[in-house]
Design goal:
The chain is an alpha+beta fold. It folds into 2 domains: 53 residues; 174 residues, Immunoglobulin-like. Strands 5-10-3-2-1-13-12-4-9-6 form a 10-stranded antiparallel sheet, with no helix packed on it. Strands 7-8-11 form a 3-stranded antiparallel sheet, with no helix packed on it. Helix 1 packs antiparallel against helix 2. The longest helix is centred in the first third of the chain and has 26 residues.
Length: 229
């Protein structure tokens, strides 16, 4: 009887460890978007996609760091503007967005959420060929080009943000999409005179599932060993 009790306690402790690992993994969230689709019908960038990446990472206390990275644009191609969405419960104009690294651009937010008032799309930011977004970053011609990054810290005095707060789709605009994020790439093609709009593919974060799966496999192996004794 005592042997069975010790066995049960050991199994319970193992489950608690697995759940603890899952909790720690989920408490530090990251949301990442690869931009690899030209959706406006114009010319796509010359290199192979994905061309850009946007990554949101939790900093704690409701603050998120956004890193925008050029993955594979050519020397003459550059990002003119980049659009994002935020949770429908958050008013975009309440966000505090501060440049902390890389190339600095200008940033603007709307006074309404992309899903909160579909009758007032004129107050939102439209990505050509897609839909309406909440947040817009802009850079001067040629400023955010090959190999560059642009990093911003985002907080909200009236709300608690996480990386998943930015995993929301644009409001449909009557054409292609919708997307979590979109960017206008310029300087494409012969004489660098063309441009195109690119959207994202979502990259799932596998860490939580890997930890849970590893833990369950470990428990199964432990139980098998116990049964063979």
């Amino acid at each position: 009887m005592e042997k069975k009790k010790r066995s049960f306690l050991a199994m319970f402790a193992s489950i608690a460890i697995v759940l603890g690992l899952v909790f720690m993994a989920s408490s530090a969230q990251a949301t990442s978007f690869d931009l690899d689709t030209e959706f406006s019908g114009a010319q796509e960038p010359e290199g192979a996609g994905p061309w850009l990446n946007a990554s949101f990472v939790d900093d704690g206390a409701g603050t998120v760091t956004l890193t925008m990275s050029d993955l594979n644009l050519t020397d003459n191609e550059f990002v003119g503007s980049w659009y994002f969405n935020v949770d429908t419960s958050v008013l975009p104009s309440d966000l505090q967005i501060t440049h902390v690294g890389g190339v600095q651009g200008s940033v603007a937010t709307t006074d309404l959420n992309n899903d909160s008032d579909s009758t007032n799309n004129n107050a939102q930011f439209k990505a050509d060929g897609d839909g309406f977004f909440d947040i817009r970053f802009d850079w001067a011609n040629g400023e955010f080009g090959a190999g560059d990054t642009s990093v911003y810290e985002i907080s909200c005095g009236s709300c608690m943000l996480t990386a998943s707060s930015f995993d929301f789709m644009s409001e449909p605009g009557g054409n292609n999409g919708t997307y979590n994020t979109a960017a206008h790439v310029q300087g494409i093609g012969i004489n660098d005179q063309d441009s195109g709009w690119i959207g994202n593919t979502v990259i799932p974060e596998p860490s939580t599932y890997l930890l849970l799966g590893s833990g369950m496999l470990g428990l199964a192996f432990w139980r098998k060993r116990r049964s063979n004794r």
